Amino acid sequence: MFLQEYRKDVQYVKGVGPAVAGYLNKLGIKTVSDLLLHFPRDYQDRRKTDRLADALLKGQINAVVRVIAHDSIGWGKRKTLKVYIEDSSAKAALVCFGRNYLNKVLIPGRHFFVSGKFYYRYGEIQSANFEAEPFDEKSANSGKITPVYPLTGGLTQNLIRKIVSNALFSVKGMIDDELPVELMRKYGFPGKYEALRKIHFPEEWQDIKTSHRALAYEELFYFQLTVFRKRISRKIIRTGRNRIPFLLKRHLLKRLPFKLTEDQCKVLSEIENDLFSRYEMMRMLQGDVGCGKTLVAFTAALSVIECGEQVAFMVPTELLARQHADNAAKLLEPIGIRVAVLTGSITGKKRNYLLSSLEKGEIDLVIGTHALFSKDVHYRKLGFVIVDEQHRFGVLQRVALTGKGLNPDLLLMTATPIPRTLSLTAFGDLDISVIRQLPPGRKRVITHLTREGNEHKVYERVRQELDKGHQAYFVYPLIEESEALSLKDAESMHKYLKRNVFKNRRLALIHSRIPETEKSKVMEGFVSGNADILVSTSVVEVGVDVPNATCIVIEHAERFGLSALHQLRGRVGRGEARSYAFLIYSEKLTEDGIKRLKVIMETTDGFKIAEEDLKIRGPGEILGVKQSGFLRFRIADIVNDSRILCSARADAGYIVNSDPGFLKPAYRVIADVFKAAPPFDDTFLQGG
Ligand code: ADP
Ligand code: MG
To answer: Domain holding 107: CATH number?
Structure first.
């Protein structure tokens, strides 16, 4: 019953005609429920108004004033309206920069409610930063905590307040509580109607908090229910693999010059459990750069191969494909595994031959870019798909791949640790494995911050490293000189460093515009020690492994994002020797730029860096899906409401486990009430 009231067109609300409905539509408000879920962005406390005379003392005030007269300052285009106001205590002036239209609103003789920041200038009390609206003694808003809504042209605060109030009145008594009673009692939540009413029209400040808690919890609870529902629905029961003696795995581990770390062992057994369970695997492996994810993935792959199935290992760049393939060849070919590389640059006969071998099952492990899942690629029996650096792939590419086999197991790997709150929402239906430990003997990379102008000192330090036989990276934000940005670029700096700084050293250059074949040649040259310095853009960010490189110089470091900086720094410190990262920053630092550099200087823990990144950038940016409406909750904020999120998840999990039947109606409710564009991408989660 309540659903119908909710779904009614917003035009049913008293005070909403076609014109107003049109404006509301622009805000995405089509139904009564949309309107009720259009939450205030702020509130003003109008229970006590201030006197204009106290404006200077208090700075920010709310006052009821009368407009005395208009005046203007400046000439021509710069002409700006100035409005004189007064109350019983003082006179003041409002300077309407860019708001000359207020001359039609702030009509002399009328009373207004003004809220603003005041200061003393040119012998008078002034404000240029204020909001004003007609004051009406009998108005519903005077003497209360008043909501301030996001607006669009055509709407005023007063109008939208009135409409929301009418809408609330129209659904009174018709809104059922949607949370199970036990949960409402457990947390002492107010009823849904009460919560909605008080978030729009609070009586006390505390009301806003209480309502927010209840509504955010409800939203997250239903969200987590859908997550659990997906998790159950995708648990496809299959004929499990037969147990094997793990001969290949044992063979490999015996040949390694080191032992797996404890974390690697733990994660490997989690993966193996999945591989031999009766459900297909959907697991995300998180672990910082250099923690040894690749080796874990290879080892897991061996078990699938031992069962007679094929494994596809997807990476974001050709460069990485080759490097991984070289590695795989070294590690795995001696124990009889047939390894191949498949990328976009492999064409013609070679490609045809490769494709037919894949189809015939003559290849056990194929490593490549998304070319692995082009239309014409067929596998004989694809049992396991590993996606390295998964955050670099679009959602669609991930879908295409699972269509290739019969429910292949899926392992997503990422070196960008994902904050827990994000894992629980964006990836809430994946199982998660984490490697926190680095292999023993790794030394923490020493990070230095240097101001532009002092580069020569850094170059000198690099020279000392080169003298010891080590190698270095130099990273720049641009490929080539740009007229628009006065930043250093890789091409010019490659020339400059070669000519002026490191004259008798071998310098190589790499960036995304260099053709693939050339790129891998350059990279192979650097890996095998034929170049001392690699000048690049952030293409070296992903996965490249050169243990002899002991320093990385990042110029204009403030231009790089936190996770990029972290990944770049991870390029060094991969061998036995002490390693250094030199971050050179320019004067023009933004506030976020300062924050980023501070974080990167303070910690090398990828998980901490990720948490900070989340605070600076917000969830959409981090997942690279800002535009798509991904994770856009109506009221909850996964950064600030992370504790609510965790309780909601725990409760939802408990309910699903004890009463799976609870799921279906719950899902309907969230779809209707929150109209949630599913915060994550459905297609991706449905998999094969
Ligand atoms: P990731 O992909 O997680 O960034 P890699 O798998 O590339 O890390 O591993 C980084 C380096 O560490 C590789 O050279 C690898 O051989 C080495 N390595 C992996 N596991 C161990 C271990 N347990 N002990 C010592 N070295 C290891
Ligand atoms: Mg890696």
So the answer is: 2.40.50.140
Tell me the residue range of the domain where 72 lies.
48-142
Q: What is the pLDDT of residues 229-286, one digit of tens each?
A: 777 766 666 777 888 999 999 999 999 999 999 999 999 999 999 999 887 888 889 9
Has residue 195 got a pLDDT over 80?
Answer: yes
Whether residues 473 and 596 share a domain: the answer is: yes
CATH number at 512 reads: 3.40.50.300
Q: Give residues (CB < 6 A) around ligand 1.
A: 258, 260-261, 264, 287, 289-295, 415, 439, 545, 574
pLDDT tens readout for residues 516-530? 778 878 888 898 899
From 126, 142, 158, give the residue that closes a domain.
142
From the CA atom positions of the chain, what is the Rg in Å? 31
Shared domain for 353 and 475, answered yes or no, is: no
State in Å: Cα 294 to ligand 2 middle. Answer: 5
For the stretch 306-348, pLDDT in tens is: 999 999 999 988 878 988 999 999 999 999 999 999 988 888 9
Q: Is residue 163 part of a domain?
A: no
Q: Are residues 251 and 397 in the same domain?
A: yes
Tell me what pLDDT residue 270 has. Answer: 95
Q: Where are the alpha helices (DSSP H) in 410-512?
A: 420-426, 455-467, 490-496
Question: Is 369 found in the same domain as 309?
Answer: yes
392 and 454 part of one domain: no
* CA 288 to ligand 2 center in whole angstroms: 9
Q: Looking at residues 424-435, what average pLDDT do you find?
A: 78
> Are 400 and 473 in a shared domain?
no
Tell me the CA–centroid distance for residue 136 and ligand 1, in Å: 71
Number of domains in the chain: 3
Report the pLDDT value the prediction gives residue 622, as an integer from 0 to 100: 54
For residue 327, give the ligand 1 atom closest to its CA.
Answer: 16
Residue the block writes with tokens 């390894």: 339
- For the segment 381-405, what is each residue's pLDDT rounded down to a tens digit? 999 999 987 766 654 444 555 566 5
Q: Would you say residue 371 lies in a domain?
A: yes
Do residues 391 and 538 both lie within one domain? no
pLDDT over 90 percentage in the chain: 43
Number of C-alpha atoms within 13 angstroms, CB side, residue 257?
Answer: 3
Domain assignment present for residue 478? The answer is: yes
In a domain, 119, yes or no: yes
Contacts 24+ apart (CB under 8 A), 646-649: 646/421, 646/424, 647/187, 647/217, 648/217, 648/220, 648/221, 648/223, 648/224, 649/220, 649/224, 649/424, 649/428
DSSP 338-388: -EEEE-TT--HHHHHHHHHHHHHT--SEEEESGGGGSTT---S-EEEEEET
pLDDT higher than threshold 70 for residue 680 = no
- Which residue's CA lies nearest to atom 13 of ligand 1? 292
pLDDT at 5 over 70: no
Q: Are residues 479 and 403 in the same domain?
A: no
Domain closes at, from 603, 629, 644: 603
Question: How many other C-beta atoms are found inside a 10 Å radius of the C-beta of residue 453?
Answer: 10
